[in-house]
Amino acid sequence: MIKDYNQTLPGLEQDTISKIQSIRKHRIFMRQTGYGLLSLGSFAGIIASGIYVKDILLTSGSFEYFSLLFSDVKTLAYWKELSLSMAESLPFLGLAMLCGIGALFLWSAMRTTQLQLFKKALI
Amino acid sequence: MENLTDAQLIALYAEGNHKAFDGLINRHSQAIYRFTLKLLGNSDEARDATQEAFIKAWKHIDRFDTSKNFKTWIFSIAKNGAIDKLRKNKSVNFSSLDDEKNIFDANIPDDQLLPNEIFERNENIEIIKNALGSIPFDQKTVILLHNGEEMTFEEISEVLSKPMNTVKSQYRRALISLRKYIESQNAPKP
To answer: How many helices (H) and strands (E) does chain A have?
Structure first.
C-alpha cells in the first residue's frame, strides 16, 4: 500500500542534471575569472620586473663583462675571476622575481586554457 | 551507463567522465523524490530536497567511501535535508526515547504484526498517510525505507547511522502504532 501512493515527478532527473550543470558552469566561470586576472596581473609583473632587471643590469656593469667575454677570447683564460665578477654584478633578486612571476604567468595561463577546454567539452 | 553499478559510475566520474554522475541521478532521483515526498508531504519541497541531496552528493563525491553503498548514502543525505526542512517548518515529531528503549524492544516477538496486511487491507490512502503522519519521524523513516523502498534493515541502519537493533525496534513500534491508528479509524463509530 505504501508503494501504491508512490508518485513520480517527470523531468526531475533533467532538472537536477541542469541545476548541477549550471553550478558547474558558474564554478568554472569563477575559476576562469580568477586565473585570467592572475594571468593579467602576472603579465604586468613580468613587464615591470623585466624593466627593473634591465635597469639593474645596465647600471651594475654586467653587460660590460659579457661584451668583454665575446670581444676578447683571451679573457677565457681568467674564466674563474670573470665568472665571479659577473656573478657579483648580477641582480639575483630581480632575476628570481622575474622567473617567479614568469612561472606564475605560465601556470595561470595554462589553467585558464584548460578550463576553457573543459567548458567547451561540457557544452 | 545503465548496466554499470553505482560504484562503477562513481569510479568513471572520478576519472573525469561527468556524464557518469548523471547516470546516478537518473537511477536514484525518483526514489529519493518518493521518499522525501512522504517525509515532507509537499511536492515542491520534496523536489527541492531531492535536488539539494544530489547537489550535496555531487559536491562531496570525492569524500565518498567507495566501499559503501551510494544508495544508502544519498538516502541519508536526503533524510538529513528533509529533517532540516521540517525543522525550519517546525513540524517534526522526533522520538527521543527511541534509542533508550531499543535494547528491550529488540527481543519482543512480533508474530501478530503483518505489515503488508496492515497496509493492504486499507484501501484508503489518506488513512495510511495520516497514520504515517501520526508516528514519530524516525519510525516513519524506517517504515518508508523498508516498505516503500524495499531496503533491508542493514541498509536502513546505514542510512540512519543507527545500530540495526534500534532500526528493528523502531520498525516494530511503528507497526504497532500504525496498526492501532488504522484500527481506530476502521472501527465502527457509535
So the answer is: 4, 0
Q: Look at the pTM and tell me if it is higher than 0.80.
A: no
Q: Which amino acid is at B124?
A: N
Cα gap A4→A1, rounded to integer Å: 5
* Cross-chain CB nearest to A16 (options B37, B43, B50): B50
Q: Are residues B120 and A1, on separate chains, in Cβ contact within 8 Å?
A: yes
Q: What is the CA radius of gyration of chain B?
A: 18
Measured between beta carbons, the chain A residues lying within 8 angstroms of B38 are 2
Torsion sign across C-alpha atoms B134, B138, B139, B141: positive
pLDDT in tens, A45-60: 999 999 998 888 888 8
Instruction: Give pLDDT tens digits for B38-69.
Output: 888 889 999 999 999 999 999 999 888 888 89
Closest to B114 measured CA to CA, from B106, B126, B122 = B122
Cβ partners under 8 Å of residue B190, min gap 6: none
How many angstroms separate the CA atoms of B169 and B142, rounded?
10
B55/A17 Cβ within 8 A: no
* Ramachandran category for residue B122: left, alpha or beta (phi over 0 → left; psi -120 to 50 → alpha): beta
Provide the ipTM.
0.75
Q: Which residues of B touch A5 (CB under 8 A)?
A: 125, 128-129
Calculate what percentage of chain B has a pLDDT beyond 70. Answer: 79
| Grid cell for residue A106 | 605560465
**Closest alpha carbon to A60 in A85, A82, A86, A89:** A89
Alpha-carbon gap: A5 to the closest alpha carbon of chain B (Å): 7
Q: In Å, what is the CA distance from A28 to each residue of A21, A68, B103, B177? A: 10, 53, 51, 51
- At A121, list the grid cell: 567539452
